[in-house]
């Protein structure tokens, strides 16, 4: 990716990654939403969906030829080997799309919004890693409010993810979000400026 600077954004659920993305977009970064790409690569007629069909069988395909997300979820979330197979199948297609988008933009700075940045292996194309973290209790409260779920569900979701220390240890920049949204925006703006200015 000649003349491109690619940064990966990851972090805890409920930490404020969307707000950070907004700040970086306003600073002139191309934002690539890897979750959106993950949905696109498994659409009807795409090679990735055909491969999933071959690997997992007819039960994961609806009568309309789309991916049956609920059926797939039932398979992979009760069998870790099946989840690994799903991820190892999808991730290369996402990586290809990311590289293609980076090559086709005239923007110098790119931010990959990738909750599974490390798991997917896409961090290997990044010039730097940015994580967004917060206290566990704040994360639980934000997830409950954002997704309208119970505390138990929020704790379960958070329990399956890495903690703040994991992200801090693997990042070049860590934005801690234990305050209000204006403080988060200020921190994100400052980080974006630091990257653009090469500091």
UniProtKB/TrEMBL annotation:
One of its GO terms (biological process) is coenzyme A biosynthetic process. Its EC number is 2.7.1.24. Keywords: ATP-binding, Coenzyme A biosynthesis, Cytoplasm, Kinase, Nucleotide-binding, Transferase. InterPro entries: Depp_CoAkinase, P-loop_NTPase. It catalyses: 3'-dephospho-CoA + ATP = ADP + CoA + H(+). GO terms for cellular component: cytoplasm. One of its GO terms (molecular function) is ATP binding. The keyword Cytoplasm applies. Signal peptide: none annotated. CDD domains: DPCK. ATP binds at residues 14-19. It is found in: Cytoplasm. Its main location: cytoplasm. Pathway: Cofactor biosynthesis; coenzyme A biosynthesis; CoA from (R)-pantothenate: step 5/5. Pfam families: CoaE (PF01121). Belongs to the CoaE family. Catalyzes the phosphorylation of the 3'-hydroxyl group of dephosphocoenzyme A to form coenzyme A. This is Dephospho-CoA kinase.
């Amino acid at each position: 990716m000649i003349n491109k600077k690619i940064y990966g954004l990851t972090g805890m659920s409920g930490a404020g990654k969307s707000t950070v993305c907004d700040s970086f977009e306003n600073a002139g970064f191309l934002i690539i939403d890897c979750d959106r790409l993950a949905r696109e690569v498994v659409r009807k007629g795409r090679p990735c969906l055909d491969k999933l069909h071959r690997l997992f069988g007819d039960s994961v395909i609806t009568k309309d030829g789309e991916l049956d997300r609920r059926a797939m979820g039932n398979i992979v979330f009760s069998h870790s080997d099946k989840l690994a197979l799903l991820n190892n199948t999808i991730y290369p297609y996402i990586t290809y799309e990311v590289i293609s988008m980076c090559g086709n933009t005239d923007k110098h700075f790119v931010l990959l919004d990738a909750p599974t940045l490390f798991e997917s292996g896409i961090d290997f194309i990044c010039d730097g890693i940015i994580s967004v973290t917060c206290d566990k209790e704040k994360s639980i409260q934000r997830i409950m409010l954002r997704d309208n779920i119970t505390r138990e569900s929020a704790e379960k979701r958070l329990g399956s993810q890495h903690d703040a220390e994991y992200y801090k240890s693997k990042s070049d920049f860590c934005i801690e979000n234990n305050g209000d949204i204006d403080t988060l925006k200020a921190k994100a703006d400052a980080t974006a400026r630091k990257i653009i200015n090469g500091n």
